[in-house]
Amino acid sequence: MTVLSFTVVFHSPFRVGSAYARDGVDAPLDQHDPLPPDHLKGMMRAAATDVLNLPQARIGEVFGSTRTPSPWSWSSAAPPGKWDFSYRHRVRIDPDTHSALKDHVVLGEQAWSSTARFEVSQAGAIQSDAAQRQHVLVLRCSAAAVHGLGAWRRRGLGWIGITPDDGPVTAADVTELRKLAEAAP
Question: CATH fold of 3-12+32-79+115-183, please?
Fold first, then answer.
């Protein structure tokens, strides 16, 4: 079974919204799992689609599709110690008066750590050794292409870098990825 390890370096705090509300906080996050596996998988898939421009057939092979589950499983990101949590306000400004609009102040939570780690583990069968090497290449390059995560990215949150623990993505990796993208159906 193949296990890929990645390190996230945070350049700013981040917030990944939770599915439940809490009293006194307009935009809470899950303090038990602030950077969950589904978010990590989603941002890597988005990078493969939008940044790397990989064909949908290739993305479906690696990340799964409506017809086939992904043969890979993501873990949550975990910092070396504990996450630091704090609050951040967002205010909507009236363009005419240049003052805060009534009822448009949002209190949101944010998380911070200098680094965190997560893993992507092979959880299903892959056709061949060559296909597995291609999957690993797509996963490594997709992770390296991610530079923002969570909500409020355009407001100064969630600026990150991700590096594979087995070494950075190289020019040779990118060349091989381009060839793989061109050869896809």
Answer: Alpha-Beta Plaits (3.30.70)
